[in-house]
Amino acid sequence: MEFLKIAIEDLKAMNNYREVINIQDAQRPRVHVNGREYIMLASSSYLGLNTHLALIHAAQLAAHEYGVGSGGSRLISGTMSLHTQLEAELASFLRTDDAILFNSGYDANLGAISTIMTEKDIIFSDELNHASIIDGCQLSKASLAVYKHNNMEDLEQQLKRSKNECKDNSNKFIITDTIFSMDGDLAKLNEIVELAEQYDAYLMIDEAHAVGVFGEHGRGVSEHLGVENNIDIRMGALSKGLGCVGGYIAGSGELVDYLRNKARSYVYTTSLPPPVLASALAALEIVSTEPGRMLRKQLWDNVEVFKKGLNSFGHDTMSSTSQIVPILLGSASRTMEVSKYLFDSGVFATGIRPPTVAPDRCRLRTTVLANHCKGDIADVLEVFRRMNEELTINC
Ligand SMILES: Cc1ncc(COP(=O)(O)O)c(C=O)c1O
């Protein structure tokens, strides 16, 4: 397929070619690649639960008791008591009527948006929303009004304009990430809630990076900002703060009931395996109790030290107020140069390039973990300090 070879050469020429990096051991704050140790600055397992003994034991027991595969899709033969238990625990944790599991956060967004929203509706979507939201919107065939990132004036303008354009029976939906995955800033949920009420729009939030991490009890940014009761559709992931894999939608009984009947990414796929479900149950127990509070404290202490250090070297960490800490660099080539320097120095950090971000907004995306020890953060900051001296580029 010659045309693919040409397209790949183009990607390489534009510094946009991607390669996978093989990690040889469990994803902990220090990992090994080709026998060499790296400090991990690119994990989404923010609380370190992916290697927590309680989760590992739960998975082992579940594998023995239930096997390693579910044997079917949810509506055929793939609903085990662990699925219903986890859905009930999620609903109780989030204090919603009900919750429904999907095999990934991606599937949850794709399934919920493309099922609930239809061609007669209008979706108002932040321009930096995750790819799974963008794909769900496209699949829904709803009209799309993309508003400028976190810009409430623009959102309101677009809501106002839509008043005249709305068809009979059409619904309006505002959708936003609560932590933006490449910028690390938080959605202005309080203002969005007010606009949703004022303009009679339903509100859907994506708490993929926030669940377990934000809020007094780990329920996310919506808990942190006190707006949980004002959200119609709450999406979250089991794959990041909770250390497992999977996604969920939580909300009213009719929302979940309808998705169970109609969401294609729920209906037409083999369900999550028992070990994952058991680990996720153990993760929920941890994040909602004292050990979770302790892990969150460790995380925020680490974030503070890391950001202070970076800022003291003059790095632009953009408007991040979360555990996701971008370092703005500009071009793809500059980003790859910095990324290579760090990798050669034993730091595992990902360079983010188009199409994930705009061509002039390329960056390193670093993430801080609760289980990074003081020495990990100090060693990383020392590499950044040396890099500032040694690299000719000013970053
Ligand atoms: C904001 C956001 N939503 C959804 C997802 C998808 O979640 P998952 O990785 O569980 O499929 C991601 C993953 O990167 C994300 O960043």
What is the secondary structure topology, with strand pairs?
Blueprint: H1 2-13, E1 30-33, E2 36-40, H2 53-66, H3 81-94, E3 98-102, H4 105-116, E4 122-126, H5 131-140, E5 143-147, H6 152-165, E6 172-177, H7 189-198, E7 202-206, H8 221-224, E8 233-237, E9 247-251, H9 253-262, H10 264-267, H11 274-287, H12 290-312, E10 324-330, H13 332-344, E11 347-348, E12 350-352, E13 362-367, H14 374-390
Parallel strand pairs: 2-11, 4-5, 4-6, 6-7, 7-8
Antiparallel strand pairs: 1-2, 3-9, 8-9, 10-13, 12-13
By DSSP, the count of extended strands is: 13
Strand content: 15-25%
| Main beta-sheet strand count, sense and barrel state | 7 strands, mixed
Query: Oligomeric status of the shown chains?
Result: single chain
Helix vs. strand class = alpha/beta
By CATH, the topology of the largest domain is Aspartate Aminotransferase, domain 2
From the spread of the alpha carbons, the general shape counts as globular
Give the total of domains: 2
Order of neighbouring strands in the sheet with most strands? 3-9-8-7-6-4-5
